[in-house]
Amino acid sequence: MFRFGDPEYLIALALIPVLIALYLVFYYKRKRAIREFGNPELLEPLMPNVSTTRQAWKFTMLMLALASLIVGLARPQFGAKLQKIKRQGVEIIIALDVSNSMMAEDIQPNRLERAKRAIARLTERLSNDQLGLIVFAGDAYTQLPITTDYTSAKLFLSSINTSIVPVQGTAIGAAIDLGMKSFTPETESSKAIIIITDGENHEDNPVEMASMAKEEGIVVHTIGMGLPQGGPIPMINASGQKDFRRDKNGEVVVTKLDEKTLQEVAAAGGGKYVRANNTEVGISAIFDEIDSMQKTELESRVYSDYNDQFYYFIGLALLLLLLEFLLMERKNKYLKHIRLFKQSKTNN
């Protein structure tokens, strides 16, 4: 298992493309200045020791050294010891709607982003529970199998967007069905599914699926993302400007929260329905309901010990800095005539 001990340092990697861009700007400005001064071919004999190739190599080594140093500071680690740990908790599957309607901005900054932030905060409250993540639109897919690795859950969560599911739509029933199959088989643990969606179901019968889940001892909760008045779905038009999704008549499509469906799903699944707003998503209220469920013994495999590997990256950075220091910007006038692989001409 691989992880970073201090991943916040990785943000500094954003400096590298900025520095590369600045280097290229100065490089082309320098070439332009030489052309303005005179013909580069005529000026070249006047600068016999100047080497643009060496300068480029030195800069490349500096950037590689900087990248290695930043990665080293982030403390890359590999799991060294896998243990079985028994905990008292429940199993939770979160099914997140990623259809285009979740990009509506009636809940700021938009429905999907607000839901992702709420799920990320939920992972910070978990300790002994197991968590799985499903994404759905016109179909449902497992994004993260059920696990106690909350760090991985956050990483998978950050990559979720509306293009992750190729088929558009809102198949809540398919999400519940996949959630039922995603729990640990043959366990008596308490199980709960949290559906986070705007409720505009067009694909199947989610109420029937929620009722089937309840029969199997799985509680289904729903969170309605959106306001009753709804909002348009933003998009980028052909000219690259922000616009809103329109129907075939050219009218702006307004997506509204379907509370009735979500209330019926929660009732059929023996769970609770909460409507999100710009102040609170409602996932905390759902978690309080889940937290009151009977805890059962859960067995999980986790890496309990990690070995730091940062010294490899720090060592590489120091080596690159040493090579950069030894590589001179200009050609050495004593060594430039040495040609180790030049063949001598022989007279026949």
Assign the CATH class of the largest domain: Alpha Beta
N-to-C series of helices and strands: EHHHEEHEEHHEHEEEEEHEHEH
CA distance, first residue to last residue = 67 Å
- Give me the count of strands: 13
* Count of alpha/pi helices: 10
Largest sheet: 6 strands, mixed
Using only C-alpha atoms, the radius of gyration works out to: 29 Å
SS strand fraction: 15-25%
Oligomer: single chain
Query: Would you tell me the structural class of the helices and strands?
Result: alpha/beta
Q: Give the CA-based shape.
A: flat
Strand order, biggest sheet?
5-4-3-6-7-12
Q: What's the pLDDT, averaged over the residues?
A: 82
- CATH architecture descriptor of the largest domain: 3-Layer(aba) Sandwich
CATH superfamily of the largest domain: von Willebrand factor, type A domain
pLDDT under 50 segments (min length 5)? 338-342
Description:
- This protein folds into two domains: 2-78 and 308-326, no CATH class; 91-294, von Willebrand factor, type A domain (Rossmann fold), CATH 3.40.50.410.
- 37% of the residues lie in helices and 24% in strands.
- It has helices spanning 15-37, 40-43, 52-73, 111-125, 150-158, 172-182, 206-215, 259-268, 283-291, 310-326; strands at 2-4, 76-89, 91-97, 130-136, 140-147, 191-197, 218-224, 231-232, 234-236, 242-244, 254-255, 270-275, 296-308.
- The chain starts with a strand and ends in a 22-residue tail after the last helix.
- A hairpin with a 3-residue loop joins β4 and β5 (140-147).
- α4 runs antiparallel to α5 (150-158).
- The strands form four sheets. A six-stranded mixed beta sheet has the order 5-4-3-6-7-12, with helices on both faces. A three-stranded antiparallel beta sheet has the order 1-2-13. It has a two-stranded antiparallel sheet with strand order 8-11.
- The longest helix is centred in the N-terminal third of the chain and has 23 residues, at 15-37.
